[in-house]
Design a protein that fits this description.
Belongs to the zinc-containing alcohol dehydrogenase family. By secondary structure, this protein is an alpha/beta fold. It folds into two domains: about 170 residues, Quinone Oxidoreductase, Chain A, domain 1, CATH 3.90.180.10; about 140 residues, NAD(P)-binding Rossmann-like Domain (Rossmann fold, 3-Layer(aba) Sandwich), CATH 3.40.50.720. Helix 1 crosses helix 11 and helix 4 crosses helix 10. The radius of gyration is 21 Å and the shape is globular. The structure holds zinc ion (2 copies). The site of one zinc ion has 5 residues, from loops. One zinc ion binds next to loops.
Length: about 375
């Protein structure tokens, strides 16, 4: 049987290619892709701002098992799997042999991106989500999706939500602590919902009105509009006012701009913690000056967090099973496209004409 993939052939160029769908090898699983989200990093890759080239795009997907390789009888949580089950794979590999893996940092496995980034021409071809099928590698965690979690929500479970569940879980955030979230994009909204369930006082900062409205729906107790509070000083004063003078125990940077880190250092209270996730570029143009003395004098803790430990995808699916109805996770996707429309969908996502586009690769046109 043949299947199709949307492969990058150049910057802002996509070609639909056809390949024979392989049989599942020992330890691997073949799934038919039901839905695949367009994530901000897919747009970055399409725009050529990422090292991957000529690979199959897409990494946030949910699919249905069509073939099980020898030895695969359960998912990575020990739940029995059968043909037809809905599953979500972690989007990166864990080789178990590199320095990071040997020290338990599976989230930063040196070979984590090898599979996702490989050329579309290379076997097994179905290595990205914008495709009719996907081959779950034998070194790739995957989990069954709870019945009440809709496809649109499950498709995004393996990226932003898992990253936030992981970040909040290892942050040290406790009941009644104040967390200030810089940025109310998808990551900020997920973080608001998760810290709300943990009993924290949640303050979200952004400069887009509709995002601040969403932040309230996702559990923010207070929002700060940067258009009104237009200096760092004003925002620090407002945070003090909202916390009876105590300040921010935690500052989570998911704004995606270097200046947010400088502001986080200024906002965090004495003994506070900064969680840095929003700045991922290591390009020199993305540097910023900070006052290191503030980190010393306030005894701040700074934690950088990339991806998530793979088993957090399971915790995330359980979180969604429990809270899917409480917060409007399902409202975040606003347009669905076919596989042939991948190019159009990426264009719409890049120009922000749609908030979150989703590809339905097996949809009849
Ligand atoms: Zn993603
Ligand atoms: Zn590794």
């Amino acid at each position: 049987m043949k299947g199709k993939v949307a492969a990058m052939t150049g910057v802002r160029e996509i070609e639909i290619k056809e390949y024979e769908v392989p049989k599942a090898e020992k330890g691997s699983v073949i799934m038919e892709v039901i839905k695949s989200n367009i994530c901000g990093s897919d747009v970055h890759m399409w725009e050529g701002k990422h090292l991957f080239k000529n690979h199959v795009l897409g990494h946030e997907m949910v699919g249905r098992i069509t073939d099980l390789g020898e030895g695969v009888v359960t998912d990575y949580a020990g739940e029995e799997v059968n043909l037809g089950d809905r599953i979500v794979p972690v989007y990166y590999l864990t080789c178990q042999k590199c320095e990071a893996c040997l020290n338990g940092h599976f989230n930063i496995c040196t070979h984590g991106s090898d599979y996702q980034g490989q050329l579309a021409e290379k076997y097994p071809h179905f290595t990205g989500g914008f495709a009719t099928h996907y081959v779950v590698h034998s070194n790739q965690y995957f989990y069954k999706v709870p019945d009440n979690v809709p496809d649109n929500v499950a498709a995004g479970a393996n990226c932003g939500i898992s990253q936030m569940v992981y970040a909040m879980d290892i942050s040290g955030l406790k009941i009644n602590d104040t967390i200030v979230i810089q940025g109310a994009g998808g990551l900020g909204l997920f973080a608001a919902a998760i810290s709300n369930t943990m009993g924290a006082n949640v303050i979200v900062i952004d400069s887009v009105g509709s995002r601040l409205v969403d932040a309230k729906k996702f559990g923010a107790n207070h929002v700060i509009d940067m258009r009104e509070m237009d200096t760092v000083e004003k925002r620090i004063e407002e945070i003090k006012r909202l916390t009876n003078g105590k300040g921010a125990d935690f500052v989570l940077d998911v704004a995606g701009v270097p200046a947010a880190f400088d502001e986080a250092v200024r906002i965090a209270k004495i003994g506070g913690t900064i969680l840095e996730l929003g700045n991922v570029s290591i390009d020199e143009s993305q540097s910023v000056s900070i006052l290191p003395g503030l980190i010393t004098r306030k005894c701040l803790t700074v934690k950088g967090i990339l991806r998530y430990q793979p088993w957090y995808l399971h915790k995330t699916l359980q979180f969604l099973e429990k809270y899917n109805d409480k917060y409007p996770f399902n409202s975040l996707t606003d347009r669905t496209y076919s596989l042939n429309e991948s190019q159009l969908a990426l264009h719409k996502a890049a120009t922000k004409e749609v908030t979150r586009a989703i590809i339905e690769p097996n949809k009849e046109e």
